[in-house]
Amino acid sequence: MPSDASDSSLTPLALKLRRDIAERGPIPLHDYMEACLYNLQHGYYRTRDPLGRGGDFITAPEISQVFGELVGLWAAQVWMQMGQPQSVRLVELGPGRGTLMADALRAARVMPGFLQSIAVHLVESSEVLREAQKATLAGVPAPIHWHGDIGEVPRGPAIVIANEFFDCLPVRQFVFDGAAEVWRERVVAFEDGAFHLATSSDVAQPPLTAASYGEPRDGDISEHCPGVGPLLAKFVARAGDAPLAALIIDYGYAKPAFGETLQAVRRHRFAELFDAPGETDLTAHVDFSLLARLAENAGFAVFGPMAMGEWLLRLGVEARANQLLASASAEEARAIAQSIARLVDPAQMGALFKILSWTRGISEPPPPFGEHFKGG
After folding, report:
1. Whether residue 2 has pLDDT greater than 60
2. pTM, two decimal places
3. By Cβ atoms counted within 10 A, which residue in 128, 135, 190, 276 is the most buried?
């Protein structure tokens, strides 16, 4: 146990986790990530606004208004495909500052009847971000409701948007012990005054078998997000007999493979995993193959994943950017061009970020998917 003098260098959450580990031994990496992000008193997403230049990262809606506008037009078109129901829930999971929703609702005004038919439902657990959303969305032409969980959203026709939501769900990691030919779970220990990764001595079985990736070798890591299944179950439970469409936007990989993707970000730079617990963002790349398989098993029609750059281009990002450029100053034009390139360029966000959609009760593919698109 480190001396009292070392306590001054530890965050309040780090002190709590150190006590927990002293009492019960090393904790699963999943539990460490869960505490760092969602602890009620000290969790990263419970205590701060992490977005923007003054935060730790910037999401696509904060980069360009065009992103949210195209999402709004997408939602309006899906509403048309649903048969224009007179009452539909427009749901956003983890809506940040409300920027995406504000841009989406502004653009969707061009669709007659859409704004009059929707009620906005924001699923947000952070009181700090709820206040930011209320300020951003003040005066929007639709009723807004806040919920702590998607299960609280009333049943009925729904359009669900999740932008950089699934990457925030805690993951488990399993390491293959080649000598014993068994898997063991990764845990977090505290020794010599610092947190570090260790491997449990207990034998574990990853939710996805080795056959999903091929034969494992010593040291191979299988990463799995256990929260995806229960979340999909809530989609199924709330869908009922009403049509539902979901739009998932996140960074991740299309096909499963061995490896670890858990990363820490602070002040717009990559950080060490154990830097300032509770004050550093922790995320993991999304396994889109897992999302797609679970959605299909739940009875949804699944479309994608599609690279975000391609998705935006198919939806007309260039045409909308040209509209903005027509009335922009030279400096504004440079900023617009740079922001669009950042979203679309495969070397920036265009390929790493992917789009997945699933629907129920809608006969047509959501835009811009079609039968000719195979995904991957």
Report:
1. no
2. 0.91
3. 190
